[in-house]
């Protein structure tokens, strides 16, 4: 097993891309990443995507995107793990390069959701939950997160308004990200008045349905400097899983999949939470951000929200999160999200995050969650000197 | 990179399983494979599946099946490459074990199609083709194969009846496979009278819509003998891709994806067509069997059908194909098919194919095709002495 580096990144703006197709979105991100890396070929392509079948009537994205990107003939598959599909595809690419079965691998996460807004998108997203025991009972994705949020407030004595810092922080950072969907700040007052979606989850607790694609190019670390001016080492790539259905979990207030995934990542990288300079967590809903901070070791049980309330999640805080807007403000094109997170960590480690730069960022972590915690893929990235 | 072995296999009967769910199908095959291998745990699970979203309202099969199989917590993803999803998942498992990122990996291909027979299944399957340029124009999967078959007959001067040997051979072998969907022989006369589906593809040119699951357990080859009485070495695992749309191909009469995939597999295994004792090819339609024989080097261009007409595809022929019934008689639960093919090759190499045993089978090849040739995954398996 050898070290792996990211030698190029690319992304499209997140938004409602009604004028271009799924394959064009993927192409735009892929071409940007390959141009950034200065490579024209690859040994394999892995595509992270969840909903192309349900919302675009298209499966078989591996060969489709490979061909459209001028890579006809190479190994190419789609990897799916619900909203964790993007990082799952990266994990497969990492395995191929680390195991010396491929040298140059391109990975793209892509999702096009807004051609079918409304009930169809909600139904499609519910396929990330347990179809027989959750979705079929009417438990949509937002409903499951609402139950978790309600329970969190009850168990630990928080008010709904205590969740405001996650939205405020994400939107503040989104303003400076040209690829973000929402580039406006929100105040705690606006959070308090936001439209209720599914009590207690309001509009600003939620990430938007949207389109986008993000990509990276992987190479063996020992040739990364020869290929790239600013390579980033993949210090860890790890996965943990849990039951899909929330009611099957050991404790609904603990993301066991994230605990396992993060522990494996820390062990592989030889670091701990104190070494992480920024954490791109999976804030599909505010409650997921709180639970993620706890599962990753940045807060004790019930204290994840406290970290945010204490102002520690800002760019100059103890653990900056959603530094480019997160799922909430950058947007959450589900199968692409994990790749956006990784691209953003690379930007930070390269010192290219502009007004959102975390000072002296050396080690960053991206954590992509499928479902309400059933698949958790964690990557720790490190600046290569 | 190290050698990889299959130390256990399992499968469900192929058919219309209206009484059990997708997860139960997967479980049955997985448990059989893990019992066969004598292992109770695994480092990772990869699930090959194409249509669970469209036909079962369920994505996120990796974590779902892992949890249901008692493997909660392990790395688990779904891998999709249309009808090539099964072998694509195996390829990912192979990469993980060969690259030393995992020791014991379980792979299951599963598909449940018959809960929504008819137009829904046909529409869902069309997602394997190019949605914008084929499916949206009304070109269903059978229609695309009909065009290829018609062209083949025109180019090389065959009659439709010349394709009969593929169906006759597959059904003859299916009779003795307890896991096959269709266990009855068909005659050339019956083939001639079979209901026309989409001219010139008739019912006996086509594989059925059905349900099933098949699984294997992978381990490093150097410990395989300690774990299994009859391990089988994965001598090659290779992928080739092509354009999804048939009209985008270099030559519609050549499966370039299969040419590339097979060449890579032969190179990796250090063998050629003359060394292959049996070939589990992807006879989703008769025309695919003919084109596969050519692409894999068993016949010159336009001569694939001749191999069958000359009686060389039978159990005692030069190159036995579909030895346990193939897609036509065993059945084609699309995302599971690639795993059934591999399980059947293992049965042959272990000498456990019963009445269908290929004498002294030492090296077998399984080739799983996604779409009408856009993803081709080839595995060459070898008996370990």
Biggest sheet descriptor of chain A: 9 strands, mixed
- Poorly predicted ranges of chain A (pLDDT <50, ≥5 residues)? none
CATH class type of the largest domain in chain A: Alpha Beta
Please tally the helical runs of chain A, counting DSSP H or I stretches of 4 or more residues: 14
Return the CATH topology of the largest domain in chain A: Peroxisomal Thiolase, Chain A, domain 1
Biggest sheet, spatial arrangement of strands of chain A = 3-2-4-7-1-8-11-10-9
- Structural class by helix and strand composition of chain A: alpha/beta
Mean pLDDT of chain A comes to 97
CATH homologous superfamily caption of the largest domain in chain A: Thiolase/Chalcone synthase
Specify the helix fraction band of chain A. 25-40%
Beta-strand percentage of chain A? 15-25%
Query: Biggest chain pair contact, residues each?
Result: A-B, 64 and 64 residues
Number of domains of chain A: 2
What's the architecture of the largest domain in chain A in CATH terms? 3-Layer(aba) Sandwich
Order of helices and strands of chain A: EHEHHEHEHHHHEEEHEHEHHHHEE
* Quaternary organisation: homodimer
Distance between the termini of chain A: 21 Å
Q: In angstroms, what is the radius of gyration of chain A? A: 19 Å
Shape field of chain A:
globular
Total beta strand runs of chain A: 11
């Amino acid at each position: 097993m050898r070290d792996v580096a990211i030698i190029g990144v690319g992304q499209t703006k997140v938004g409602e891309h009604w004028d271009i197709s799924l394959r064009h979105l993927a192409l735009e991100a892929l071409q940007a990443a390959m141009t950034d890396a200065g490579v024209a070929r690859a040994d394999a392509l892995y595509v992270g995507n969840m909903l192309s079948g349900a919302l675009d009537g298209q499966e078989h994205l591996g060969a489709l995107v490979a061909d459209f990107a001028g890579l006809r003939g190479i190994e190419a598959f789609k990897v799916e793990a619900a909203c964790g599909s993007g990082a799952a595809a990266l994990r497969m690419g990492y395995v191929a390069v680390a195991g010396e079965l491929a040298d140059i691998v391109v990975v793209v996460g892509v999702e096009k959701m807004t051609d079918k807004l409304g009930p169809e998108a909600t139904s499609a997203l519910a396929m990330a939950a347990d179809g027989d025991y959750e979705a079929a009972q009417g438990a949509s994705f937002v409903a499951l997160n609402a139950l978790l949020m309600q329970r969190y407030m009850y168990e630990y004595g928080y008010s709904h308004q205590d969740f405001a810092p996650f939205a405020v922080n994400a939107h503040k950072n989104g303003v400076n990200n040209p690829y973000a969907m929402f580039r406006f700040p929100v105040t705690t007052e606006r959070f308090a008045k936001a439209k209720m979606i599914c009590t207690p989850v309001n509009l600003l607790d939620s990430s938007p349905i949207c389109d986008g694609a993000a990509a990276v190019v992987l190479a063996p670390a020992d040739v990364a400097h020869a290929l790239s001016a600013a390579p980033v080492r993949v210090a860890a790539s790890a996965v943990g899983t849990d039951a899909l259905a929330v009611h099957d979990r050991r404790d609904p207030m603990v993301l066991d999949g994230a605990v396992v995934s993060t522990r494996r990542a820390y062990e592989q990288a030889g670091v701990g939470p104190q070494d992480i300079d920024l954490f791109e967590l999976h804030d599909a809903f505010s409650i997921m951000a709180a639970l993620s901070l706890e599962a990753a070791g940045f807060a004790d049980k019930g204290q994840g929200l406290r970290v945010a309330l204490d102002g520690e999640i800002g760019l100059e805080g103890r653990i900056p999160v959603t530094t480019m807007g997160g799922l909430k403000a950058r947007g959450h094109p589900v199968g692409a999200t994990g790749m956006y997170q990784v691209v953003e960590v690379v930007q930070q480690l390269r010192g290219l995050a502009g007004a959102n730069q975390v000072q002296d960022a050396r080690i960053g972590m991206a954590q992509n969650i499928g479902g309400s915690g059933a698949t958790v893929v964690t990557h720790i990235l490190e600046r290569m000197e």
